[in-house]
Amino acid sequence: MAVIGAGAWGTTLAWMLGMKGHEVSLWCRREELAREIEATRRNRAYRPEIELPPAVEATACMDAALQGAAFVILAVPAQVLRPVLEEAAQHLPAEAFLIIAAKGIERATGKRMTQVAADVLGSNVATRCGVLSGPNLSAEIATGRPAATVVAGDGAEWRRTSQVLFASPLFRVYTNCDTIGVELCGAAKNVIAIAAGMSDGLGYGQNAKAMLVTRGLAEMARLVAGCGGDPRTCWGLAGLGDLMVTCHSALSRNWTFGYHLGQGMSVEDAERAVSGVVEGVGTCAALKDLAAPGADLPLTQAVYAIIYDKQAPAEVAKSLMGRRWRDEAETWPQLGGPR
Q1: Side-chain half-sphere exposure of 199, counting CA atoms within 13 A
Q2: Can you list the domains of the chain with their CATH numbers?
Q3: Does residue 310 have an active-site annotation?
Q4: Per annotation, catalytic residue among 20, 103, 111, 189
Q5: How far is CA 299 from its chain centroid?
Q6: What is the pLDDT of residues 56-105, one digit of tens each?
């Protein structure tokens, strides 16, 4: 196995696989981090509570990390997936299965992560490439708490094999063939979580949080349906499950970033105050551009207005509350036929 990316999630995934007895190469962008992990068996910068098993080897050499890998797990931020794949392409074993653990939309192109992989590696990668997504706070998984996830891809063999690869007594894995829906849910929930964090930072209370999460779920479903996915995916782990945990936990970088904005911090200061990449920042701009003209994405547009147009969170919240009255079901997407 090769895990590309030694942040909190990549380190946790490498630990999970190593504890199952798989030989794992953990690729680090920085040589000094790889040396530290090898010397101490810990990634003190991102996941210090984990002691990596002997089966996990850290390296800053992409060629060495990918040599002979049957599975390649990509756990890098969404906005750098393309250059990392371009670096990996020349070393990637021809039949390796790819599992993308990044959640986001590429801002420059508006493409989902599997589309980025197809751009770099060719369209024939589709049947051996997919995504892992769900309510998976790495800090909880790293301390042995139970969780579940979804693996979604176009290839039936990829789905079955990926399910077996990650499943354990404490990590339940479901499969899903709606790759579009799972990817868009994983991206959009980060934007809604920023809004939820701002609501908490402004002191609006639990009624407001419930409103945001519920209407955010409806917004996600409209987005998924409009992009060709199945809106019912939004009621599953990659949708509602991930939305709940990301909007309610201080372990969520997106919620924390939003909370700081609600407390009056600037965008720049709020980003500096969060340890790690806030995926929702780039994703809200990508989703705003990706949505069809006239698409009803008020929360996404509100988060964009605060981050990029520097509007005050309280004023944007007031504008949202003043939108025209409507029937609740007016903007619900139409459900498709049997799956």
Answers
A1: 25
A2: 2-177 (3.40.50.720), 180-331 (1.10.1040.10)
A3: no
A4: 189
A5: 18
A6: 999 999 999 999 999 999 999 999 999 999 999 999 999 999 999 999 99
